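>> received
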Amino acid sequence: MPSTTDTAPPGPAAPGAPAPPLPDDPAGLKVVPARHLARWIAAAAVIVLVAQFTHGLATNPVWEWGVFRDYVLSETIVQAVWVTLQLTAYATVLGFLLGTVLAFMRLSRSPVLQTVAWTYIWIFRSIPMIVQLVFWFNLSALYDRLGLGIPFGPVFWSVDSNSIIGTLGAAIIGLTLHQAAYAAEIVRGGVLAVDEGQLEAAAALGIPRLRQIRRIVLPQAMRAILPTAGNEIIGLLKGTSVVYVMSIGELFYQVQVIYGRNGRVIPLLLVATAWYVVLTSLLSVAQYYVERRYARGADRTPPPTPLRRARRTLRALRTAAARRHEPVVPFKPLGDIR
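>> returned
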């Protein structure tokens, strides 16, 4: 006989009562959120380090924030920033123009053009920028006069090299020739990223070669060129500091002159750092919007810009604040409406 202690099998559930979950039913399992303990520990450690660094900036007297405020917007520093911007602008425009020519020389089917372009890029990428600047600064020791005439023949017109190439001109030449070697590879990589079928279709339509490059190749290559080119321009902006060896009054040179007189090295270096950060940030913002413009063909619905997202957030906050002050209308059933 069965034991009286045995439990009876469960009968059918009462009508309307939910069925008990099965042992393997996911609905009966308890959901526990993931506990990212390591992530929280890392975040807390980073916050502590940032707080310590910020506290040191605010309390360490060696920073001398009063000296920083006196010099950061002084006339001498602002003029030096202007010279830095001039050097960057000239070297960027001329360097990328020459680099584009060199890039298409390397892509040419002429072995002479390919060899000359490759040799130029190899030489100017091998020599440090500071060596090139010193070389161009002492160009008059190698060529005391520059002239025009028949090759290997008489010279019809000549001029003293020091009178035509000054200190600033030598710096621009050195920066431009150095930048052109890197710009050539950037442009060449962007052109190679364009599908060859585009050129084949353009050639089948009878479009001239120059128009193919200007209207078809370069607009599509800009998407691949711009990120690297923007990074290169930012590097050039900071690289202009090496012209201090030529005693040109750019930002870093003027900072050196000032702290050489008053001995305030740390706050003056902080002045240069602040200006470089500001200029780099402005170039980064410009790069973002230029990349966004050239991405219109590939991304027809680009994400909103940070300014638009900020405006959208502000508009949502204003709408929520306005609704908070609206009177609450009590709910009335349909039968009570008269």
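>> The beta strands are 145-149, 155-160.
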